[in-house]
């Protein structure tokens, strides 16, 4: 996925009120950028961190700049929580996620459960038998119709090589896991895909110390048949894309 160009580089001064970030650009200009991330951004909001922001000439915008990436160690880290769904939509359309390939229809933002919207509903009226063998499905697996897919943004890391989620209480994400498990119980496929917007992680883990309810729910959902997928991204200042699957440290 191409990013708005060109990105400008500077240093983070402060991230505050959740959606604001002050930066000093390399040319000395002081700006306030929109921060498209409602989470805690632990480890990614310290003053002095290198940062990259995009610029828009849309006159309707209150802030022309948008914070897109922060430099953490030797890695670019994407903090824009709006990107993962776009990245996954692009990858699904190009059939670049093997575990989710072969569906005829991809619909975003479909209502389901009692009060949720699934990020993507993938459907196919006639899954080929060979798909079962490739994915090691049980003999009674429902080959028809639907795969319910939730996408979660992940950028948190406290241990070298380990991506973690969430970095704060995630009650909505916890509810989504229960909703996905309910779809499996009804005979459909369901999956949660964590998009790790950084290149320096080879494993993924939930954070029981920060949100024990989510960590427990993730394990329970997996036991119920919800597929847990984690993909890291290739991060560049002109483009971001899903690049490789990484392991879940359960």
How would you characterize the overall build of this protein?
- By secondary structure, the chain is an alpha/beta fold.
- The protein has 2 domains: 8-77, OB fold (Dihydrolipoamide Acetyltransferase, E2P), CATH 2.40.50; 83-248, Trna Endonuclease, Chain: A, domain 1.
- The chain is 18% helix and 42% strand.
- It is built from 4 helices and 16 strands.
- The chain has helices at 83-93, 129-134, 171-185, 212-223, and strands at 8-16, 20-25, 30-34, 50-55, 65-72, 75-78, 105-112, 116-124, 145-154, 156-159, 161-165, 189-196, 201-206, 227-235, 240-245, 247-248.
- It has a 6-stranded mixed β-sheet, sandwiched between helices. Strands 1-2-3-5-4 form a 5-stranded mixed barrel. It has a 4-stranded mixed β-sheet with strand order 10-11-13-16.
- A hairpin with a 1-residue loop joins strand 10 and strand 11 (161-165).
- Helix 3 (171-185) runs parallel beside helix 4 (212-223).
- It starts with 7 loop residues before the first strand and ends with a strand.
